[in-house]
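I would like you to sit down with the record closing this message with an eye to the fold:
=====
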Amino acid sequence: MMAPSVIRAFTVPSHVESVKDTRVEVGHRSRARVALDRSPKANVTLSQYMRLPVEQYVLIKLPLDSELTKLDAGSGVDVPEMESDNNTGLFKLLVPPITFTNLTLQPVVFAAVECRKNEVVIHSHTCVLQGSEFIERTRLNERFDFKVETSLTWEDNVDSDSFIYANTRIEVDVDVPRPFNRIPKLILQRIGNAAVKISLKVIQGTFVENLASDYSKWSQDEPYRLYRASLSQRA
């Protein structure tokens, strides 16, 4: 069995002066765009594909051993309120492990996904860290605030290429526990921003590319379209 993929951030020296302010804010904005060939048939447009039931996102392959799971509505997970109950879903995203110096953490994000008229919105303020005894010892899951929102939009062209766009904003505010609170705040922010940037770039970029590949298959493969339609009927 292969070891799980790990995203590594920068390492820092341990002989640094302590600081009083232990709260650190990190974040990143990311954009991705992928071009697609125009639809071969009028009834298999990109707009129709993007408006398929959101629970079918679990069929899209994710990078680095990431895993997306559909949750039941009564799961009890705290997620942002959605504008409508129509074509919405709750998901659990297992993010690849992230290493800060000698500490490895694996984030688990619980998100709400909502399909609107011309946009698919993914948003969350619930993230649970796992993978180390350090998390429980320092009550790390109680020491940070987390917020992420991704907007998927598209450009559906008849006579030229179509496009899928992804725009993501992620913000994390952490009350840094010992011994990491001895590291200067600026260095911690750089480490955190680097880790967030790397993770987001890999996951978002690959997801959009795989979404485009899945659309190409859906638009050209009628048995696959029928299979996807049968999933909608079961829901």
